[in-house]
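Batch manifest, entry 17 of 40.
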Amino acid sequence: MIEFETPKPIVMNNNALETVAINMMRPVSRYFDEHEHEIPWDYINFMHMAMRATGAGSLAPTEKKPKEGEEVKERPRIGYQTLAHMLEMLAWGDCGMYLVTPGGGLGAAAVEAAGTPEQKEHFLKRFRGDKPVFGAMAMTESQAGSDTSAIRTTAVLDTATNEWVLNGEKIFVTAGHKSLCESNGFIVVWATIDPSAGRAGMRSFVVEAGTPGVQVAKLEHKMGIRASDTASIVLQDACVPFDHMLGSVEIVREATTKGFKGAMATFDATRPLVAATGIGVARAALELLKQMLAEQGVEIRYGLPRQKMTAIEREVIDMEAMLRSSWLLCSSRSGWRITASRTPKKHRWPSYGPDMWSRRLPNARWS
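Output type: structure tokens
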């Protein structure tokens, strides 16, 4: 039997997060937006303890390993769906506060996507510790935004010490300062081991807090989402151990695009979650709009033929329909893309063509 209800663990988690959003995020969100770079430690420490209690330490989907001899019952995995619901609710509370939630963030996602099992265990266990820890991904450069093959940060292997020597500058690193200066975290730096090889020379390296030669050079002053730091990071002869390059040893010797594919895999795993946060912000804005309309005595009359509605009623209903369809796309289709390869076929969602989701609802005919 096909079940369309939201899984009970997700519902319970969402109820708890809604309480956090209403009572811990929204009352102080304006203050931290007006006091840029001041850190909301009360929220951070509370969320760290809560996530430790629920096992959601790294903000990256993980699978529970069965014990030796334990029979594993096949059932649909909901880890990614749970994470999408979690981030949507936190962003509904406040987008800036959500981005200071402790955990691995994009850094952990990069390790999950490109690291070996040993690297995942080594680098991600810190997020389950006693103190809140942050992770970040450092990819963007002044000349390389979406064109990741144009990255100029270099990584040269020092054969005498068996270390990678990194040089370059990264910009727009979300949570870079918290990862390197405020916690025992790390950043994942994307660099090239062969500038002439283009994408084939691209690799990712874990650079931990306290690494000599790594400096947070600047914190951006932004027009919004000010509770979250956005940093520029300079790497000057920064030495990291050989095994801090994510992936197997073989990709060092080969002219391969595995490093580039690792970056793309990170984006594949995290872009739907970024969409979920956008939907959370949109839901908050729409709810505020309806509240303000109600204060002016404007109520939305549902169930009427479209031609009998006022213009504002049609606009609000169209926005609600688009918001709902966007959430269905994010939580169902996008989540299915990430987990399908690891989910037994009998539990997979059917694959629908993109045209099913791409129709713009305001242009549709309503009876």
